[in-house]
UniProtKB/TrEMBL annotation:
The chain crosses the membrane at residues 303-326, 338-356. SUPFAM superfamilies: Nucleotide-diphospho-sugar transferases (SSF53448). GO terms for molecular function: glycosyltransferase activity. Its EC number is 2.4.-.-. It comes from Actinomadura fibrosa. Keywords: Glycosyltransferase, Membrane, Transferase, Transmembrane, Transmembrane helix. This is Glycosyltransferase.
Length: 407
């Protein structure tokens, strides 16, 4: 136990100081100056059976007061609940409220059936790209995402090259534009299970894909957050287009990798101006969300699955167990090994909690929850194992009435 605790402590020491500051939650999105000419932007919203949630989200996108041409294209992916009709009604209401100074134009595009080799959402995204025409930027967003006023303008400012800015100081900085600007949406934490599991989901994602490294040119780390991805169309085309990731179940990470490997400059950050309103009230709902794609993330490899489980146990479970066992043995019989286990385990557990606390604060939750992260990690370990079990049983990632079995 003392040896395992020392290994876990070494891992946490590295994670805290050498892993791209993954635990930091500060908004680092650069605030550029206005471009001389605002580029055309088309928001692509893949939607399958989203009639119930669109009234909470689509109006926030249609109401964006973007200075340039802004179009919202909802791609109805074979819905059966009247998604297109609801979206059309909401767009008409938004246009009437805006009056002559309409803020965004709207179109609905229908996709029917399935196409071999294409994941449903990626195919819907590709149909949206086709419908958008020759715009400079594409904003891929989800049907459950709500936007604060001015968000689209801020995203475009961040992506626009400084040399295209009106401010002389910005024009001399030498900064290039960004090809992908992604904002990780704030997720719902209204229920008990959401408060227990959602911040950890964000924390684990940032640990897998440190946001700072995503933004470093030349770094291998690449990712994006699917709720909000502003992509330069030319960079996407240069990288091979969405056809290059047509089978991706985790489309956001795949898109980030595609753009970055194609030479694009990327940025991924957290921000409160983008939020998901989709509820996950029960443990079963959150469990299904993670289990749907976890095994796909491991490339359907039993070896990677076993390594992931062992790694999670070592990094998250060993520290508190070593601390408790070590302290207990010290009280009963003493000994150098017990002291080492207690000290190493306790220190690793403290570092773990300290790095988790900023994410809890981001979600306005008490940092006193941080020491319970090992229990949450155990639940996520169970979700990962269950993801593999579902795949082996032929059920794969069931979502929106479709089952994806993978390889």
């Amino acid at each position: 136990m003392s040896a395992l605790a020392l290994i876990a402590l070494a891992v946490w020491a590295y994670l805290a100081v050498g892993h791209g500051g993954f635990w930091r939650t500060a908004d680092r999105l650069r605030r550029g100056a206005d471009p001389r000419a605002w580029p055309d932007v088309a928001a692509v919203v893949p939607a399958r059976d989203e009639a119930a949630i669109l009234p909470e989200t689509l109006p926030t996108l249609l109401a964006q007061e973007y200075p340039g041409r802004f179009e919202v294209i909802l791609v109805d992916d074979d819905s059966t609940d009247g998604t297109s009709e609801v979206a059309g009604r909401l767009a008409a209401e938004a246009e009437a409220d805006a009056g002559e100074a309409g803020r965004a134009t709207f179109r609905a595009v229908r996709v029917t059936g399935r196409e071999d080799g294409w994941a449903g959402k990626v195919r819907a995204m590709a149909e949206g790209v086709r419908a958008a025409g020759e715009v400079e930027f594409l904003l891929f967003t989800d049907a459950d995402i709500a936007y604060r006023p001015g968000t689209v303008t801020r995203l475009v400012r961040a992506a626009t090259p400084a040399a295209n800015a009106t401010a002389p100081a910005a024009a001399t900085t030498g900064e290039d534009g960004l090809d992908l600007v992604s904002r990780m949406a704030m997720l719902s934490t209204r229920t008990r299970w959401e408060r227990a599991l959602v911040p950890a989901f964000v924390y684990f994602f940032a640990q897998l894909y440190p946001f700072r490294r995503v933004g470093e040119d030349g770094a291998r780390t690449a990712a994006a957050a699917g709720g909000c991805m502003l992509v330069r169309r030319s960079a996407l085309a240069r990288a091979g287009g969405l056809a290059a990731i047509r089978g991706a179940l985790i489309d956001d990470v795949a898109l980030g990798r595609l753009v970055k490997r194609g030479g694009g400059r990327c940025r991924l950050d957290l921000g409160r101006e983008v939020a998901s309103v989709r509820p996950y009230p029960r443990l079963a709902d959150l469990w299904a969300m993670v289990a749907r794609s976890a095994y796909h993330q491991l490339r359907y490899s039993p070896v990677l699955l076993a390594g992931t489980v062992l790694g999670l146990l070592l990094v998250y479970v060993v520290p508190p167990v070593a601390a408790v066992v070590g302290v207990t043995e010290l009280m009963l019989s003493g000994g150098a090994r017990a002291a080492t286990a207690a000290a190493a385990g306790g220190t690793a557990w403290t570092i773990m909690a300290a790095t988790y606390a900023p994410t809890l604060r981001l979600y306005r939750l008490s940092p006193l929850r941080a020491p319970l992260l090992p229990l949450v990690a155990l639940l996520y370990t169970g979700m990962t194992v269950d993801s593999a079990r579902r795949h082996r049983a032929g059920r794969g990632g069931a979502w929106k009435g479709r089952t994806v079995t993978g390889r």
